[in-house]
Design goal:
Main location: cytoplasm
Helix content: 55-70%
Organism: Reinekea thalattae
Number of strands: 6
Protein name: Protein GrpE
Oligomer: single chain
Number of helices: 3
Keywords: Chaperone, Coiled coil, Cytoplasm, Stress response
GO molecular function: adenyl-nucleotide exchange factor activity; protein homodimerization activity; protein-folding chaperone binding; unfolded protein binding
Structural class: alpha+beta
Distance between the termini: 134 Å
Strand content: 15-25%
Radius of gyration: 48 Å
Length: 204
Amino acid sequence: MTQEDKAVDDIEQEVTETAATEQASDAGVDEVTVEDISEVDLVKQLEDAENRAAEAKDQYIRAEAEMANLRRRVEKDIENAHKFGQEKLSKELLAVADNLERALQSSESETADITAIKEGVELTLKGLIDLFGKFNIVAVDPVGEPFDPQLHQAMSMVENPDVEPNTVIAVMQKGYQLNGRLIRPAMVMVSKGGAPAASIDEQA
């Protein structure tokens, strides 16, 4: 082999090695780029999944709170239905009690022949009062008590220096409460003796 042929071979080998080195370098760059892209995608997917999980948790907490509020409202409605479901019946029975009391008052001056009737009426009234007790119906009979517009209805005001102003001195008609709720105010007469009484709404 001549010196020239050897020189040509060396040049071809050098060119081949250079090309191989560049090809390997290019392949390495592409490989790093693909890995970088994959990591970015995974991070983004993870962030999206975390955001969806946080949103789902928030919706779950809100739904639980709404269900708890609904449960409390339903329980309150049921409780009120149990307590006040008989309010209409109670109001109807009040008229019966009033009539029995009036019958007793009118029979007080009658002869002894009426005694049996009076006793019967008394027993009827007692039974009705016992029935009221079973249904938690309580009479409002405030003689001697301060006037309370939440419980009483003033029918008239009378000067009476023997008692404090705005004191109930007579009850014309008892009031009644059902489980603590006023279903009829007591109709009362109120004193206005001594110092000037505070204004009372007689139509309350």
